[in-house]
What we know:
27 strands
Amino acid sequence: MTEFVCMIHQGCIRWPEATAVVCGSQALTYRALDAQVNIAAQALSHCDPCVTVKRSVTGTLDDVVQLLAAQRIGLCVMPLNPQLPDDWLNAAVKNLVLADWPEPTQNAELTAKTAKTAKTAKTAITPIAANCPLHWILTSGSTGTPKVAVLSMGNHHYSAIGSLWYLHSQVGDRYWMSLPLFHVGGLSQLFRCFLSGATLVIPNQRLSADCLAEFNITHLSLVPTQLQRLLAERQDALSHCKSILLGGAPAPQHLLDQAKHLPLQTTYGLTEMASQVVTKQPDGHYQLLPYRALKISTLDEILVKGDTLFLGYQTAAGLNPSVDADGWFRTRDTGSWNGQRLVITGRIDNQFISGGENIQPEVLERIALGYATIEQAVVVPVSDTEFGQRPVIYVSGATDLNGFLTWFISHIPKHANPIAVLPLPPQAGLKINRQGLQQLAEQHIHGNLA
């Protein structure tokens, strides 16, 4: 069985005086971070290793240290968004066995006792098995129905190593922690950074061109909206970066054109594969990352497997691997290979029928993103007595909705014409809440606003 030693402890051995973390004016070397993690790990050592603990994370230095400490001892953690509605969380973890994160008062005495020895003595580090569950990650896919994806030590390790094959990260590079730690993208940043000896910069201010320059950031993971805002702030905002990963949502072509001068790599990934699967290199070549496998089924569904594939979904009945007889995971994404280009056409779950015609929202959304000012576009169905369902489109970035609609209708089939175009309301988190937008559209169209 493959085992892994704590990556921070390895960093302490390989690069003891290299800077591991920067948070505001505070900086920790790998040696100092290792000591901090050691203290926290000993304070957590009384937790039942067979029970997952939940922790609300806001992206602080303490959050990073505590998650690294849990990893060191093989304690499985469910990192949670503190803004998550209670009813949504309760639905996700109903009948699951979870423990609360130990309060500081519960382990303060132990922490005080171990702090002195942790800084002066080398504590034995037990290797963690590759299949050891490390994180329970809440994922809703596109249905809004919460699921608990279980990722192992090996999943995170191989995901990072495969990604680093193309990122060329090294000691002295700096990663801005731009994605939340309750998201697989945020956790993957930790592994890519620390496995390469780079420095993690923990934000104490909002993402801006000035702070990226101030902290000399070389590596970034962004969603299109973040990239759009940075380039609008200053065209040279990212000129010093060595690598920028862009994912989470389709990017407008005009945004990609704006970013042509940047080392931008667009990605396709999913929680169940510990983030990245395929990356488009700056030269336009699509690369399937190491430790992953991907194929397109006869029904055009994207299937994946490999060392980064999650252990399964945690349910009240136990762990459900959720793979077919050959070990392939059905992503519910549809796509095709166009030469060496992977084209993601949409989600099976999102497709609907209007007047007997299939409508794939993502196809219409990509067309909408071709309009000069559109930043985001989301198409949802609303009920209709004659056609069964009709499309409604939400957009952001358009100052003239009627002008956009006229242009949009001229670029799509007649049966896909939306019955309304609405401004896209602010979205919480990294994913669009299609279910919530559909409910709003129903209220708008059918006049039953509360």
